[in-house]
Design a protein that fits this description.
heterodimer; A: 246 residues; alpha/beta; Rossmann fold; 9 strands; 24% strand; B: 297 residues; mainly beta; Lipocalin; 2 domains; eight-stranded antiparallel beta barrel; eight-stranded antiparallel β-sheet; globular
């Protein structure tokens, strides 16, 4: 079983398109703020693309080439099914790969030296694919270090857990923005801006939430969008999204 | 859309004449004449249809197009007794963009039929088995091809289950006109069921049939050459694809020390897109696992 993909995920995503529309709109707004390309040929590489359930085809149409990577055997055909016609209409060349782009990140970056790289809800899943929390943290650090000098972005889980009320579009808080704070020194407690405290309260979290280990993924000073994702009734994800433009 | 062979009376007539001559002579379908192809070499090294100057070894050889469960099924029967087909199943959306590849070796033929003795037929399919970890499924079977007329044949496959779980399909296909018009650029999609990889590519060929632009899918560089060939009435191309050893390429086995070679055919017919021609490429390895390309010009 793939803990963060597979056919169940696609079925769930397909079923919840309407319920997730507000989340998708927030993500679309953030996607539109991507760092501009200096090249005439604009290329996008999506790592962990799945079927692109939560991104609009219209955003992808702005690129001349879109290359996707996902481990899930269903991702490539479903991505093409979902976005292929629109991309053909805009003369955007689509390449879909079933591969572990995180393990082969060096080769991916080498093959696409000028591409904008989007980690699409994948870095927050690493704790499910590594034997320990420490190893997951180290892997995230390695990946972000490898992206030095590149234009890249990530949307990922920050936290997830149960909510006091049935999560719905109506009850979800609106998207918030903040700047990535500096990592606190070992002796200091982590603090969050006031507006994020309000955001977390509006999530109506219940019990203990899962930390997806992405708190320090972005460099300090990165504008970060905080998005509520009512994943299923009574369960919500707190997404973070940010772009890095060196 | 299925192009109708009757729109090309000259070629249809030629094919009918070829079939008729076989029947009159009472010879086997595969033994009309002693030459293996009806091609002539041109000054630029390419080959063109000789227009009947020589006799093909298989009168029914040529390009065919049919519909199976409302989905496109294109096939080509070569004079060398090989049958290649692509099935673009559309009842399952995920499979429609990953065509199944069929390859058969004709084991016996007569004036009106040809047989693919089991296990001479291989089906390389996009697997829709929900719990199957691999996106591809390779199976073998047999089949028969019977020509009710020279412009139509009936295909019956045995031991093969279609991607939509229909077993032992039987359907008809109509002869379609193929063209010797390779040089230039073809824009379309290459698919490989082995990894479920797909790539929108432009393949540009020179007059000698060599790929002149750099083309790669899923870390697999393509060194592709098409050599012109022809049946009596149907030009086609003998295809050879070499994939050099490449890290990350699913067609490069971990222990591979040499390039992977896939062989097959290509043929050009009228595209479903009005005013365009369509190149179909079918390439397989010795097991029947392969890749396909469909592009328009």
């Amino acid at each position: 079983m793939n803990p963060s993909g597979g056919l169940f995920w696609h079925w769930h995503a397909w079923r919840h398109q309407a319920q997730w529309s507000a989340t998708c709109a927030d993500i679309a707004q953030w996607l539109g703020q991507m760092p501009p390309s200096k090249d005439a040929h604009s290329e996008l590489v999506i790592v962990g693309a799945s079927a692109g359930w939560m991104m609009p085809s219209s955003w992808l149409q702005g690129f001349q080439t879109v290359t996707t990577f996902d481990l899930d055997r269903w991702a490539a055909p479903l991505f093409r099914m979902r976005h292929g016609a629109a991309l053909r209409a805009s003369n955007t060349a689509l390449q879909c790969n079933t591969a572990d782009a995180l393990t082969d990140l060096g080769a991916v970056l080498q093959a696409h030296p000028r591409a904008l790289v989007l980690f699409d809800n994948v870095l927050g899943q690493l704790r499910f694919h590594t034997p320990s929390v420490d190893e997951a943290c180290r892997r995230i650090e390695k990946i972000t270090a490898r992206m030095h000098g590149r234009r890249w972005g990530s949307v990922h889980d920050a936290f997830s857990g149960r909510t006091q009320r049935r999560a719905s579009t109506a009850s979800a808080p609106v998207m918030q923005r903040s700047l990535q704070p500096r990592a606190p020194a070992a002796s200091q407690a982590a603090t969050r801006p006031v507006e994020l405290g309000r955001f977390s309260r509006q999530l109506h979290a219940q019990g203990e939430w899962l930390d997806h280990l992405t708190d320090h993924l972005f460099p300090a000073g990165t504008p970060v969008h905080h998005i509520a994702w009512p994943y299923s009734p009574g369960y919500c994800h707190w997404l973070q999204a940010g772009w890095i433009n060196p | 859309m299925t192009p109708n062979a009757s729109r090309h009376p000259n070629l249809t007539t030629l094919r009918r004449r070829a079939a008729a001559s076989c029947l009159v002579a009472g010879t086997l379908l595969v033994s009309c004449g002693g030459q293996s192809s009806g091609t002539v070499n041109t000054t630029d090294g390419s080959q063109q249809n000789s227009g009947g100057g020589s006799t093909p070894s298989l009168a029914m050889a040529g390009a065919y197009q049919g519909s199976l469960y409302s989905s496109d099924f294109v096939s080509f029967l070569t004079p060398e007794l090989a049958w290649y087909a692509l099935y673009y199943l559309q009842t399952n959306p995920s499979a429609s963009i990953y065509p199944d590849i069929y390859r058969g070796a004709l084991s016996s033929t007569s004036s009106t039929s040809a047989t693919i003795a089991s296990p001479g037929l291989t089906a390389f399919q996009f697997s829709t088995h929900l719990v199957n970890a691999s996106p591809s499924h390779l199976s073998t079977g047999g089949g028969s091809i019977s020509g009710a007329s020279a412009t139509n044949y009936q295909v019956s496959l045995s031991g093969i289950t279609l991607t939509n779980n229909q077993a032992n399909p039987s359907f008809s296909s109509s002869a379609i006109t193929s063209y010797a018009a390779l040089p230039g650029s073809w824009t379309g999609t290459l698919t490989d069921n082995l990894s479920a990889a797909s790539a929108d590519l432009t393949l540009t060929f020179n007059s000698a049939g060599a790929l002149t632009n750099s083309a790669t899918y899923a870390f697999c560089p393509l060194n592709l050459t098409l050599t012109a060939a022809s049946t009596l009435t149907s030009p086609y191309y003998v295809a050879r694809l070499e994939i050099p050893v490449s890290t990350g390429c699913v067609r490069t086995p971990p222990s591979s020390i040499g390039p992977t070679v896939l062989t097959g055919i290509g043929f050009i017919h009228a595209s479903a897109v009005s005013g365009k021609k369509r190149l179909e490429l079918i390439l397989t390895d010795t097991s029947g696992s392969g890749i396909s390309f469909r592009g328009d010009q």
